[in-house]
Amino acid sequence: MPGRSLLFFWPVLLFIGLPFFFLGGPGFHSARSFAELWNLGHILYCALFTLWLQRILRNAKISSLQGLTILFFLPFLVGFLIECLQYLVNGRSPSIADMLRNQLGVLTALVYQTWPQQKKNIPRCLAALLIRSLVALLLLAALTPVLTAVWDEQQAQRQFPLLADFESSHELSRWYYPRQLQLEDQIVRHGKKAARVQLSTAKYSGIALFHFPHNWQGYRWLRFSVYNPLQHSLELHCRLDDTEHRRQHGPYEDRFNTRFTLKPGWNDLSISLQQAAASPRGRAMDMTSIKGFGLFVVKQQESIAIYLDHVYLE
Q1: Contact between residue 172 and residue 183 where contact means Cβ atoms under 8 Å apart
Q2: What is the pTM of this model?
Q3: Alpha-carbon Rg of the chain, whole angstroms?
Q4: Contact (Cβ atoms closer than 8 angstroms) between residue 210 and residue 249
């Protein structure tokens, strides 16, 4: 009777979970911890799917090898189909990382539940222990991004009103286009490290602070330091926007925009947040819900690298 209940209950549970592959979930500006935690749903879903298949195949007249093959590859095909449907439904590109998470869920179910127990066969028992240990390490690796994101989000809250001082590599993940950032310990304005920012010859090339405490109410200045390694001045553009601008996909005039002329060497720059609040046309910027702070250059003749340090509110 319990077995029959499970055979009925699990398809219902899987059916309920299926829409979450297409609806809901983290948005473009969601917290990193939420996005990473949501990704773990692939592991859970495919583990449950594999266990359900194992129940169905239990009485099938097939060999153990055929059963394991079905249990491993059928969830793979279902996962691949879901990735393709995601592209058709909401334009999301198929993700290799999600496919790997799917198979990790399959492996978890196979190794910890459906793997035959071989208590009297010591070599097989040791092999099973080794495989389970490897899968446990893979699960830990899948969980690490969640733990890292939670830890850095807590750090960002504790450090606020400091937004970035680049004393830790974890701070790089707070920025959009983090691959353009690299920690630097030679050209430093504050503390022991700064960030080297690689800029290209694209029409707009820069970085943006994405993950940070968003309530800036009560602060008057945004301050940061930028090092210009060139022998001549460099024009650096800056933007600041809030939730309303992002939600409405507002135009250029609906955010704060300014530009600085960087002299060679270090430049200590400031932005009046009172001026920024009054910048959007026809409304006031919501200083309790700042969403992005960006720095970029326009149409450079050659690739250059500048250095950024000590971004904070005052």
Answers
A1: yes
A2: 0.76
A3: 26
A4: no
